[in-house]
Specification:
It contains 10 helices and 12 strands. It has 484 residues and is an alpha+beta fold.
Length: 484
Amino acid sequence: MRFALALRWRLLLLWLVMLATSATLAYLIRDVYQLGNEAQVQKSAEQTRRACTELEAGYARATQFSERAVDVAVMGAVLNLVLGELPGIEGGFWEEENGFIAYAFPTHAGSEEKKDVPPTERKRITTLAHSSIVERSPLSDLIPGIRETVLLSACPTNFAGSRLVAWTMSRSPAALGQAYDELNHGLGLLLGFVVISGIWLGFSLHGWSQRFNRIEQALGEYSGSMPGEIPATGDAELDRIVGAFNRFRVRLGTERARTAELGAKLAHLERFAALGRMTAVVAHEVRNPLAAMRLKAENALALPGSQQGALKFILGEIERLDSTVKEMLRKAEPVRVHPAEVHIADWLAERLEAFAERSAAAGIELQPQADLEIWRFDARSLGRALDNLIANALQHTPRGGTVTVAASKNTRDAMSLIVCDTGVGVDASMEPRLFEPFVSGRTDGVGLGLALVREIAIAHGGEARYIRQPTGACFELEIPWRAS
């Protein structure tokens, strides 16, 4: 069995994938930015350490032939020479006795030359320089801040007995700087877009689902044979379906009206065709009895003693002619239906009661089956059709047989009336013409009963059919619910 998600769940799954993708992308972007910032800090720290080493080495070369360990003028020259090639790095010399004795920041971006050691970092520089003298090795320090990271390096000189240290300092913008703020703003906009799109998608799906449910309810509430018009929902896509359905409904109504008109014309033509066949039947059914009565009357006149027998024969033939004329008149009578709600069980019991004595005399059992409580139809006209079917079944069922009359609701939401017998069934050659007028399997039959059954079924908007069985015969009347 193929599994398919509903549209709403597929769209929700798509939105969840978008949310997961956006969250992953935001995490990766932040991580890459952090790695870039850390790399920048490491690069600045390396430059600061290298600048400190160059200051120490440069000052050592400049004073290698001097007996003085501290020469402020040489220090200033070395500072400007070394730091002038390294943008963003400042530095100086520190002595344990005298503290800061030289300072320079040749690449300072300000409008004025910077000559003083930054006061906020003086204590850190002093502590780092003193530690480098104690350990007699270069040291570095990193001071993280909100907007920037301060990088310090201290390199002790090689003068014997000297406690002189060269130091450098640089600043690396922290991740919380302006670029980081802009990154967070962009990621926030991305997250806001995903959340807002999810809310919009939820409202859209809710409204779409409600409109779809209204369409489904409108179709489900109608129980007639002609669907009602569905109002527009306001959704462009759904209204295309609604419009197509309403146009189909109009075409269906037009075709049904045309079918009814053609059916009426066909019935009219069938009546004319039946009239021609009826003329032949009337000629045959009337001429033969008349000829027989004439012969009997002539013999009675010639033989006076046979008059009573002749009169009895003539009365029998007259009764036969009268029955034939009644059947023809009944066939010619137009079928009109006046639907009303009928209790099926009571109605079937009433119809079968009319045949109780006849079936008992023939030794045939009548079995009613009613699986419906109420249906709407013309009880009188449909009773005539059912009577004809029951009478035919009794005529073709041998003694000890059974005639079943069942009423149920079929798969097309119509009432199915089925009359079955346990007789010999219908000859295969007669099946295509069973419901035609004047077609009968009995020598004494006129052949109007099943034709009348079909006309009554059509008048109810239904149909009559023969159901082939291994034994016996079954006839079905399919009657839809008649609203009016």
